[in-house]
Design brief:
With about 325 residues, the chain is α+β, with helices and mostly antiparallel strands. The chain contains two helices and 20 strands. A hairpin with a 2-residue loop joins strand 11 and strand 12.
Length: about 325
């Protein structure tokens, strides 16, 4: 036997031995895998075409958006909050007004919820007031608004929208909501004379020994006069040689005084009484030093009428603004 022949036999034998070992290892692995599966322990397999995997059903954290758990006020799930109906009115409201803005809403659900109602300025979408409603039962509810913001001050003129949220700020399901527009138009003051009218002498018109300190509004005697701004009646008196029957109201949240002169004798607001914006306080007359039926109206700056303030020259400008939107 040559060396070449003797040298090749050990290599071949080694290759055959390796092949045998690999085959034995594969057989043992298959057997072990079968035993592993028969033990009841889950096996991992590579899905083939048409095979589906089980989705992750762990609820996502957070209260917003769609929720499968139904606990955060999302749009789906048996426990979600659904807004069934809503409406707001009247469409036009005034600060501290006789008729307040009222938002009515109906919710459904399977249990009481912690909710909140927000009032939003539609111009910049800022929230100006919040009503918190803990343990709110399913059913019909309402909130009222007199025109103040979250700091208790008068809101600015504009259009405001009511909306309902969960306590954490998540939307409720509005997909089946019925109702009218949930917006209201808000104004700080109301034109005081309710009826056909025209403008007479304004601020600065000459008078005997003084100048006119207000704006005359001409109208038939007996026409209603309402509070341009609600507040407390500081004075309700009579001056024969000048104002006749008159009323002075401390305008709420303004520091300004609103003065109404030449009123008829009866049906006037009383001193110390609190009145609402738009509430009747008297009727057009011609009492005192008046030529014909008209309302003489004055607007006084802080701190008020004959107590350190002064009659405001801008009274006519304000009256025309109020007349435009009232």
């Amino acid at each position: 036997m040559s060396r070449r022949t003797d040298g090749t036999r050990p290599g071949a034998a080694r290759r055959k031995g390796v092949i045998a070992l690999v085959a034995a290892a594969a057989t043992m692995a298959a057997t072990a895998g079968l035993a592993f599966a028969q033990d009841g322990t889950t096996t991992t397999t590579t899905p083939t075409q048409g095979t589906t995997t089980t989705p992750d059903t762990t609820p996502a954290k957070g209260g917003g958006g769609t929720s499968t758990s139904g606990g955060g006020g999302g749009k789906s799930g048996g426990g979600s909050v659904r807004l069934k109906a809503e409406s707001a009115g009247p469409s036009k409201v005034f600060f501290y007004g006789k008729n307040r803005a009222t938002y009515r809403y109906t919710i459904s659900g399977d249990r009481p919820r912690n909710m909140k109602i927000q009032l939003v300025n539609r111009q910049n979408w800022r929230v100006i007031k919040v009503w918190r409603k803990d343990d709110l039962e399913p059913g019909s509810h309402k909130v009222t608004w007199s025109g103040n913001n979250r700091h208790g001050k008068a809101a600015k003129k504009g259009t405001y929208l009511f909306r309902i949220r969960t306590k954490r700020g998540a939307d409720v399901d509005r997909s089946r909501t019925k109702g009218d527009d949930r917006s209201v138009s808000f104004f700080p003051d109301k034109f005081p004379l309710r009826g056909k009218h025209s403008y007479g002498d304004g601020y600065g018109a000459p008078r005997a020994g003084h100048v006119h300190q207000g704006q005359d509004i001409l109208a038939d005697c007996g026409k209603r006069i309402v509070a341009a701004r609600g507040g407390r009646v500081q004075y309700s008196g009579y001056q024969a040689g000048g104002a006749g029957y008159y009323i002075v109201i401390d305008g709420k949240s303004t520091g300004h005084d609103y003065v109404y002169m030449h009123l008829q004798r009866g049906q006037r607001a009383k001193q110390g009484q609190r009145v609402r914006t738009g509430e009747q306080i008297g009727k057009v007359g011609d009492t005192g030093d008046a030529s014909g039926c008209h309302l003489h109206f004055e607007l006084w700056s802080k701190p008020g009428w004959y107590s350190g303030g002064h009659a405001m020259r801008t009274v006519t400008k304000y009256l025309r603004q109020w007349d435009h939107w009232s």
